[in-house]
Design a protein that fits this description.
single chain, 9 helices, 16% strand, 204 residues, seven-stranded mixed β-sheet
């Protein structure tokens, strides 16, 4: 978005920590295929007005991973609960539908509608933030935000002591968390493999 000249040497008066990175899209579709192997038609739900790069930022890595996973990617730009309902209803109408919820302020705010529609249409869904799973979604994989805040405190300290933001590299996430909601899996008729459960940071 042009806030910094370069991640390693940001220049100007802004630095900090990103709460996402582009390859997460590939991780989401891999996770969906692991937890629901029959997912062949994978809808990607996002608001083009608020998603990073209008949605392209994450769509690229999802699309790049899809062929090897034998999955068809179906982008669903949405701007309202009604459009969320149409997208999930379409995915649930035929076997093999799965859903990836893109990291986006719109999808975060509208997660109750997304979770409810995914459940109503029996569509397995992957969320990018842990509260997607703790609020009733099937599974989430994303950045550990608490870890980011801990690391950011060091930057705050250095800047207050005189270090210029221009000289502090923009930091990428280093810790990610996987949360699986077994109650939702049971409702969808999904039996989560012991291997996947063993890798989870939290099981609900």
């Amino acid at each position: 978005n042009g806030f910094v000249a370069d991640l390693a040497r940001p220049g100007g008066n802004i630095t900090g920590f990103t709460n996402f990175e582009a390859t997460m899209g590939g991780k989401w579709i891999e996770l969906l295929k692991k937890i629901a192997p029959g997912s062949a038609r994978v809808g990607i739900i996002f608001n083009p007005d608020t998603a990073p790069g209008g949605g392209a930022f994450f769509l690229k890595s999802v699309a790049a991973s899809a062929p090897a996973l034998q999955a068809e990617v179906l982008p669903f730009p949405v701007r309202s609960n009604a459009e969320i309902e149409r997208a999930t209803t379409g995915l649930g109408r035929e076997p093999g539908g799965g859903l990836i919820v893109m990291l986006d302020i719109f999808t975060a705010v509208h997660r109750p509608a997304i979770i409810a529609q995914a459940a109503a249409n029996r569509v397995p869904a992957v969320f990018p933030w842990r509260f997607g799973a703790t609020d009733g979604g099937l599974v989430s994989y994303g950045v550990d935000v608490v870890d980011l805040h801990r690391r950011a405190a060091v930057y705050v300290d250095r800047i207050l002591k005189g270090t210029r933001p221009a000289d502090l590299p923009v930091q990428q996430p280093t810790k990610f968390e996987l949360v699986i909601n077994l109650k939702t899996a049971k409702a969808l008729g999904i039996e989560v493999s012991p291997m996947l459960l063993a890798t989870a940071d939290e099981i609900i």
